[in-house]
Amino acid sequence: RKEVEQDPGPFNVPEGATVAFNCTYSNSASQSFFWYRQDCRKEPKLLMSVYSSGNEDGRFTAQLNRASQYISLLIRDSKLSDSATYLCVVNRTSGGGADGLTFGKGTHLIIQP
Amino acid sequence: GAGVSQSPSNKVTEKGKDVELRCDPISGHTALYWYRQSLGQGLEFLIYFQGNSAPDKSGLPSDRFSAERTGGSVSTLTIQRTQQEDSAVYLCASSLGAGVDEQFFGPGTRLTVL
User: Of A88, B29, B30, B71, which sees the most CB atoms within 10 A?
Assistant: First the structure.
């Protein structure tokens, strides 16, 4: 099982619709979870952290399910500007103790007018 | 303030040549990461520096790849005897402290090996 798995999409969604996608992770010891956004030919940028109790930031809601080891991102009232690749990110623990982040390959979202 | 900067923005080289890619992290950030991203693919972790600790080199794909971070700031990723499969965008990121802090990415260096 890959460390972080996402449906690559693309998800083609009409403007104004609600869209949700999930991500699964393999390391049950992971403690930190994030969603990053990457626009075409641009660098990734943090969209939001994912907290155990779930959290919301405007039109975006992130949730964590530790038992099933997945996190989700919900986008309400989607805008054309939401078109991007959404990267699921989980903290990575190595035997050497140097933590970092593992990035999923991303889910490509296209909002259509 | 200034973000993460990388140079060059584009590099075209011939197979077998060595290349050096530079990253200037955000001032005060103790953690620095190198990733690469091939066309249409996800981010592949390469190496991670955290303060004065030994770097985590577990992501380096071969011994042709090496990286240094001098003075806890600027980092250089060196690829020796480049191969065509090394063609990718090489991204550098820095974070304030521990590995789970938000990572700020540079614009990347697009490497093309002919």
Answer: A88
